[in-house]
TrEMBL record:
InterPro entries, alphabetized: Aminoglycoside_PTrfase, CcrZ_PhaseVar_Mediator, Kinase-like_dom_sf
Domain Aminoglycoside phosphotransferase: 17-227
Protein's UniProt name: Phosphotransferase
Gene3D superfamilies: 3.90.1200.10
Pfam families, alphabetized: APH
Length: 271
């Protein structure tokens, strides 16, 4: 970790912060702590300026070409699953999806809007490469539903989507501040990709109308079709991800998710 010492100073103690990438660290000195990450996107700066992530303290480019970012470490905790229904989460998501500053920054970084047609083609190729396209009936049913519902996803307003709205990625500080972290998967896409995930996994169905009213979503004929289209394609993406890592139990969990999604689409949308 010598390169991190060079970034913050030798007097700081550095420990791994955990996570899948192994590129996140905590630097401590006296009663101060910083969250360090290697090669974060320049997008972090505008997220910090918008108050969506903890304040960015500095960015340094190292001799080896790596870029180290340091953010304030704030005492707090991850949101609990039941807290995802809170109106502050809805308000934060609406702010992100409607932010022209975030959208323009991603575009300046070279991000192109991700079209549903492109995603459908990509997941088809991915499943085929992994031998999953015809391996499970639920996969075949999902692909049929995706193909049938694809026109409902066309010509929708796009914004910045986080694309990983697990409750573990929302932090509430001891002072009550709410932050959304881990932006590595952000893209320009239909916001239904984000709020569909929250509704499906965190909000009771009888509360969906209330949640959507607060968010300000236009409940046109295609809203739920779009939501479930993205939920299905995400489930297929995770299925392939677990298969590539030889995690058979989690593959079966994803097949179960697909079964539930297919049942809903069949009974509530295609009936």
């Amino acid at each position: 970790m010598n390169w991190l010492k060079q970034a913050v100073g030798k007097e700081w103690d550095i420990t791994p912060a955990g996570g899948l990438t192994g590129d996140a660290y905590i630097a401590s000195k006296d009663d101060r702590r910083l969250f360090l990450k290697r090669n974060s996107s320049p997008f972090l700066a505008v997220l910090s300026a918008e108050g969506i992530v903890p304040k960015l303290v500095f960015t340094k480019r190292m001799e080896n070409g790596d870029v180290v970012t340091a953010q304030e470490w704030l005492d707090g905790r991850e949101l609990k699953a039941e807290e995802m229904q809170h109106h502050r989460v809805t308000d934060l998501l609406r702010k992100i999806h409607g932010s022209s500053e975030l959208l323009h920054m991603l575009m300046r970084l070279g991000k192109k809007p991700v079209t549903p047609g492109r995603r459908f083609a990509d997941i088809t190729a991915q499943l085929e490469a992994n031998g999953l396209l015809n391996a499970f009936t639920e996969v075949q049913n999902t692909m049929d539903h995706l193909d049938y519902l694809l026109p409902a996803t066309h010509n929708q307003q796009q914004g910045v989507c986080h694309c990983d709205l697990n409750h573990n990625n929302i932090i509430i500080t001891t002072k009550g501040q709410l932050y959304l972290v881990d932006w590595d998967n952000a893209m320009i896409a239909d916001p239904a990709m984000d709020f569909g995930f929250i509704l499906k996994w965190y909000v009771p169905a009888e509360e969906w109308d209330r949640w959507l009213n607060q968010y300000g979503a236009a409940k046109d004929n295609y809203l739920f079709e779009r939501m479930y289209w993205y939920l299905m394609i995400d489930a297929l993406d995770y299925l392939s991800w677990h298969h590539e890592r030889n995690e058979p139990d989690k593959v079966q969990n994803r097949i179960a998710d697909l079964h539930n999604l297919n049942q809903y689409v069949q009974n509530a949308i295609l009936r």
